[in-house]
Amino acid sequence: MNYTYRIYPDAAQKADLLEWLETCRGVYNYALRELKDWLASRKCTIDRCSLEREYIISASEPFPSYHRQQNNLPKAKKLIPRLGEVHSQVLQTTIRRLHDTWEAFQKRGLGFPRFKKFGQFKSFVFPQFKVNPIESNFIKLPKIGAIRIELHRPIPDGFVVKQVRVLSKVRGTQWYVVVAIESSVSIPDASVHGRAIGIDLGLERFLSASDGSFQERPKFFRSMQGKLKLLQRRASKKKKRSKNWEKAQIEVARMHHRIANRRKDFHLKTAHKLCDQAQTIFAEDLNVKGLTRGMLRKDCVDAAFGQFLCLTEWVCWKRGVYFAKVNPNGTSQICPACFATVKKDLSVREHFCPECGYQTHRDHAAAEMVLSRGLENVSTQGLWGKETVCQVGLSGVYDLDKWRGAEISKSDLGKPALYARCPELVEG
């Protein structure tokens, strides 16, 4: 688990931390330059040297792997004494960070590592500690010293500190540490149990639950957009790289940081509220990237559905609540009472089924459909109760009814109560 704490370094420590970040940025960029040069030298044809490409590295030169570049750090320290001021393991984790990005690029085929500009490298890691670095209200970091920490919650008993990431925010004016703690106790994943609800996320209502409850959407960015625009206008009129320009940029960064904190606080409180309501939660598996490219992209980014789903999954795991995602396709176009298709535009906010007459809010109907799909998934997987021939979604039941020639309308297909009213369909 990771615990995030605010730290308050003094002026000398803050200068050292900023210097370390710049040193790590230089090491990262140099290692990336070696990697790109090696790749560029292999782009020419096999029988001739290229006059247009970058310079050619010998064919016998091995690939600049993580271990090779890590072993070159002691040699670089002799040539550049400034590297010796940074903890050796911090530089090694910087090289590791580059190669993790490179390996991720090879797997997904996109996202080639980029050079870090000034101010873009915002964190470094101490990968291990022999003893607990946190004592009372201070945290001891190698070569940095004891820094005052806001220990708003203590480290739980039985957990040891594995690594510490130092994080810079608001253009180097606010500092945090992300403490990774570990325990030998294994916690099993939560199983399906208790009361179940489905949730639907939207822009009119941030969250609608299948039990009828809903949560309005606070417009964090929209409400602060006027003040942010004013600060950005002031910053644009300052001379670039001057002291007044830097002060104005810090004000803009502080406003963005405040908006992000308010949004995350709302997401965590909403997730805990859901865990208080039920012990099993189903949510839509939304295409978050697709939502940020549409006409309502600004509102979707402001709502941050992806962050909310990640935080909800984490809170559910921590509190022993089962959490699962279901297919979101057509949840608002299907009646949850009779499973009939009811086409409606996005502007239609009420759900009315002409087949069964069921009427409710559009988001509430979608949440009920999410719950139905979630229960169907866990039932067919054997996670919920026992499977019977009356189970919704059981493979072959609908086709069997059609083969028998049962005169059942499309609205009745999929109704769990239908088999209770017509047991002859099951008994054959």
SSE layout and pairings?
Layout: E1 2-8, H1 11-40, H2 66-71, H3 73-79, H4 88-108, E2 123-126, E3 134-135, E4 138-141, E5 145-150, E6 160-169, E7 174-182, E8 196-201, E9 205-209, E10 214-216, H5 220-236, H6 243-277, E11 280-284, H7 288-291, H8 297-303, H9 305-319, E12 322-326, E13 350-352, E14 359-361, H10 362-380, H11 397-404, H12 416-421, H13 424-427
Parallel strand pairs: 8-11, 11-12
Antiparallel strand pairs: 1-5, 1-7, 2-6, 3-4, 4-5, 6-7, 8-9, 9-10, 13-14
Quickly describe the structure:
With 428 residues, this protein is an alpha+beta fold. The chain is 42% helix and 17% strand. The protein has three domains: 2-182, no CATH class; 191-387, no CATH class; 390-428, no CATH class.
Task: Report on the architecture of this protein.
This protein has 428 residues and is an alpha+beta fold. 42% of the residues lie in helices and 17% in strands. The strands form three sheets. It has a seven-stranded antiparallel sheet. A five-stranded mixed sheet has the order 10-9-8-11-12. Strand 3 (134-135) and strand 4 form a beta hairpin. Helix 1 (11-40) crosses helix 4 (88-108), helix 5 runs antiparallel to helix 6 and helix 6 packs across helix 9. The chain is globular. The two termini are 54 Å apart.
